[in-house]
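User: Here's a chain of 244 residues. Predict its fold as tokens.
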Amino acid sequence: MKTEILYGLHPVCEALRAGRRTCIEIFIAKDNARFPELIPLVHPRRIPVHTVTAGQLSALSGSEAHQGIAAKVSEYPLVEMEALSGAQSPCFLLLLDGIVDPQNMGALIRTALCAGAGGVVFPKDRSASPIPSVSKASAGAMEHMKMARTTNLTAAIQNLKQNGVWIAGLDRTANQSIYDMKWTGPSAVVIGGEEKGIRPLVRKHCDFLVSIPQEADFNSLNASAAGAVVMYEVLRQRKAAKAK
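Assistant: Prediction complete.
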């Protein structure tokens, strides 16, 4: 079994709550030996807990942002695309095209979970992946989110379209606003990379291109902020439709 080191209180706690990984052992820095929220999560599982120095924890996790805690766990459990398209009805997915910054990926995953997305799809190449730093950036939300890696995002889009999912690409130059788009049916939104946006071939295969209205003549929102705006518009429309 391949393992990795999760670090930070929220990622460790949420991994235990989600129960999707095997937790082998936990390491706590001497100066932060009390984490009461861990007790009901660790004791029933009889997970060994080791006390180490802050320096040892930094070396173990490869980060100074460990908050005094880390855990040796199995790798993040990716799922197949088929598990996402049938995860909820109507389907709503987040597709990431070239999001290479772990902070942005983590923030997008956190919002996707809070906004009710059924899963996240990301390409194998030119993309961040669900590593511990992304879980930390997501405040542990990644531990609950279903994510699929695809070797070809365009092919994944075509497959989703064949299964009745409408694909909308977020593009700041698009004439159609996210507020004019009907999000209540099976749909997926594509968020492009921080610098170049959605790649031309991916853009070509989107059913719609939508933009976020802006008042200021300024560069567009960054990927995580833009993703949050559109995902909460999807949530708003779907809640309104259910209330009718």
